[in-house]
Amino acid sequence: MLYKYCQRCGKLLEYGSKCDCVPEIKSKKYYKRKYNKVYTKFYNSKEWRMLSARYMSDKMYTCELCGKIATNVHHKIPIQLDWSKCLDYNNLMALCVSCHNKQHNKGVY
After folding, report:
1. Which end of the chain is more exposed for a tag (fewer CB within 10 A), N or C?
2. 4 or 82, which is more confident
3. What is the pLDDT of residues 75-106, one digit of tens each?
4. What is the rounded distance in angstroms from the CA atom of residue 12 to the CA atom of residue 61?
5. How far apart are CA 63 and CA 80, in angstroms?
6. Comparing C-alpha atoms, which of 60, 62, 71 is closest to residue 101?
């Protein structure tokens, strides 16, 4: 049997087992319950998935800010502020992860 030491508390454990001192990580299921169901339903809708895929294809999966590979379709005007623009093609931007995070951290949606 293989053993290892817990990196947090130093307790000897069987390899592959978890220590009691490690907190449980919240799952995506918990996050979805916490998140507003209206937005979750919208982002899972067929219309949004088709529009975002078409937009990314049209922009050739290139970030519109830095030129790297884009993975996110971002709403310029947040749907929380103007729901009528949720499926507006002209309200979208293709962004890489770092540019998308910068947009949200700046307070620019």
Report:
1. N
2. 82
3. 999 888 899 999 999 999 999 999 998 988 76
4. 48
5. 23
6. 71
Residue type (1 letter), 66: C
pTM of the model: 0.65
DSSP-assigned states of every residue in 11-75: -EEETTPPPTTSPPPPPHHHHHHHS-HHHHHHHTSHHHHHHHHHHHHHTTTB-TTT-SB--EEEE
List of residues 6+ apart from 74 with CB closer than 8 A: 92, 93, 94, 95, 100, 103
Q: Which helix (H) or strand (E) holds 100?
A: helix 97-105
